[in-house]
Design brief:
2 copies of one chain form a homodimer.
Chain A: H1 17-24, H2 28-36, H3 43-56, H4 62-69, E1 74-79, H5 87-99, E2 104-109, H6 114-126, E3 131-135, E4 154-157, E5 166-170, H7 172-185, E6 191-195, H8 201-214, E7 220-222, H9 227-239, E8 247-250, H10 253-265, E9 275-279, H11 283-286, E10 294-297, H12 300-315, E11 323-327, E12 330-332
Parallel strand pairs in A: 1-2, 1-3, 3-4, 4-5, 5-11, 6-7, 6-8, 8-9, 9-10
Antiparallel strand pairs in A: 10-12
Chain A binds a DNA duplex (30 and 30 nucleotides) through α2 and α4.
Chain lengths: ~350, ~350
DNA sequence: AGGAGCAGAGAAAACCTTTTCTCACTTGAC
DNA sequence: GTCAAGTGAGAAAAGGTTTTCTCTGCTCCT
């Protein structure tokens, strides 16, 4: 047995295929073919090489391999979502989808700095990434960096992209319908909508879907993405004369939180008097409200998974149809509306 | 001018140094030396090569370069902090410190799955990372993966590591002192401490520092890391007979949030009647409380920066002293205590 | 027996860059 | 007019792997 007489092969550096070849008593080419399951050789030889490789702990150098194959099994994820509320679930989905294929992910947070973005893109290209996924915190804004005419494929996940690109985003209208229909199904008749700035595309989508079902008995209340706005909006509604809503559909979970707090301060019971539903299903927020918040989940992890599989397909040269793909939201039922999924 | 007659060099693939050499009418070696500012050659030649390279948009292939230099200018960040509350600031710091050096970061979220961790570590090693930074969500827990005896350096950032390793962590005792001394300075005399599970090292550190200053007039109240515990603890305190605290030092911002909510429900004014201070300075939480929460910031970004620079030094073969490095916390003053930094 | 065909395995090129070595030529000194 | 020293630039090897091509025997058929 030539192999096994060393735990720490004297020479410097990692174990290469050359060491495997020597230990197995074959040439480098034969070793390579044996390990990759290609080429012609005796079954006995192939097994011996494989065994030896395992014994001495050989792992192929991905750099060398990538140099030749022009595939680095690496992709870049570019995001301006510093806080990571949207990007992290997306990232988790991407990673989950790609780890099986041996692909690793460079994460680059570029804030909103075009120069920094440029630097990171160039660094990733230098490292021969197989593709780039652009991600953000807003569906109707682009990253501050030009990703057209890159030598690698690009897909966009939860961020705006150019017309002929592949874009994944949540179906906010469908998500809003889910929420409002749920309220209707629970018997609610006067449903208010307190949401973020009208300048946000998501806000308009959600408000549009809301209005289609709920009508215009209650006006949509646009504001900012903050608890304080939720509280203030409730104050406005309850200082008005006339009938009060029996349900409030909120543009995100922070607003919903403010709404719930304000309702409790007015001794209005949730969900008995008023049902509240949020958007984003930001667990750390939704689970800590009193009562826990029923909320629309945008399925960002699934979105990341799709984006990952798509960039992989593109990297492998498979054709992928361009266009916007809306992925469905789903409703996470907690206690702030009453009811349960079995009802 | 040989260069410039093509926007899209007919052949396939990216632009290599061979193209630069041809376009500049020199050999590959000369081109390389010119671009790297080494070797001997006429100043005119050097400038011409550089100019041509710029014109045709040459960028060296990092894979090829890494193959030779055995430096990939890539590091891995391993974390089990899925939610990213701790890892993201650390990551931002690392990235910020390393981008200037052309180093990119693989982010691998491994949940608490040892098998997944192993896969990611091996993938990173195959890709010849120059080093690995392990990070987590708890100072007294290790990642579920063995990082000893790796062929690359490892540093630990906000997670437990083996005795002879380089570990960066926040100085929680100092942070707690900062908070309590601030309360004392504002004239508070009965300071309570509502915090997380005693099993957490951070909790014991913070509680220890608290007790040293505040004494044992108020017992430390251990619970869970949730708003509900903050509310419940306040209920307990105010249902007891005897003098009530005039300040509450909370183990994290979520607890502080619950405390503030519970105090308001009792019509106890913050900060007039009771000062509240949190820990973590989790902005999205601290800024949305009423009033905004004064909180201890653990300086995770700086921690990441230090970890990044250290792994870089190790990768370059510079000696680095092993041991635990505690990085200082600082106090972010908002309104929940009264007072301002100028006082 | 002579050749076709095939099984098994190695040699060498290729990927792209860096670096060491070598070579040809010029200049200046004696 | 030689020699030494210096200048500018190219040839070649190295890094680890994959892949194509080539080579040597062997079997089997006629």
């Amino acid at each position: 047995m030539e192999a096994g007489l060393n735990l720490e092969e004297g020479k410097k550096g990692r174990i290469t295929i050359r060491d495997v070849a020597a230990a197995a008593g074959v040439s480098i080419s034969t070793a390579s073919k044996a390990l990759n399951g290609i080429g012609r050789m005796g079954e006995e030889t192939r097994e011996r090489v494989k065994r030896v490789a395992r014994e001495i702990g050989f792992r192929p150098n991905a750099l060398a391999r990538g140099l030749l194959s022009k595939r680095s099994f690496t992709i870049g994820l570019l995001t301006n979502d510093t806080y990571g509320r949207f990007t992290l679930p997306v990232m988790a989905g991407i990673s989950e989808a790609l780890v099986d294929h041996g692909v690793s992910v460079f994460l680059c947070a570029i804030e909103d700095d075009p120069a920094l973005g440029q630097i990171h893109v160039e660094a990733m290209l230098d490292k021969q990434v197989d593709g780039i996924i652009a991600s953000g915190k807003r569906l109707d804004r682009s990253l501050p960096v030009d990703l057209s005419n890159l030598p690698v494929p690009v897909v966009y996940a939860y961020t705006e992209g150019p017309p002929d690109s592949v874009i994944f985003r949540s179906d906010d209208a469908q998500g809003a319908r889910l929420a409002v229909e749920w309220l209707v199904k629970l018997g609610r008749r006067r449903i208010a909508h307190i949401t973020g700035p009208e300048s946000f595309f998501s806000v308009r989508e959600r408000a549009g879907a809301y209005a289609q079902i709920a009508g215009d008995a209650e006006p949509v209340m646009y504001g900012i993405w903050a608890e304080s706005w939720g509280r203030e909006a409730v104050a406005q509604i309850w200082s008005r004369s006339g009938e009060k809503p029996d349900a409030i559909f909120c543009g995100n979970d922070q607003i919903a939180r403010g709404v719930i707090d304000a309702l409790r301060e007015r001794a209005i019971r949730v969900p008995e008097d008023v049902s509240v539903v949020g958007f984003d299903n930001w667990e750390i927020m939704a689970e800590q409200t009193r009562p826990p918040l029923t909320s629309v989940d945008m399925g960002l992890k699934a979105l990341g998974r799709e984006a990952g599989l798509t960039i992989l397909a593109l990297a492998e040269g498979k054709p992928v149809e361009a266009g916007v793909r809306k992925l469905p939201c789903h409703l996470v039922v907690r206690e702030s509306c009453g009811g349960s999924l079995e009802d």
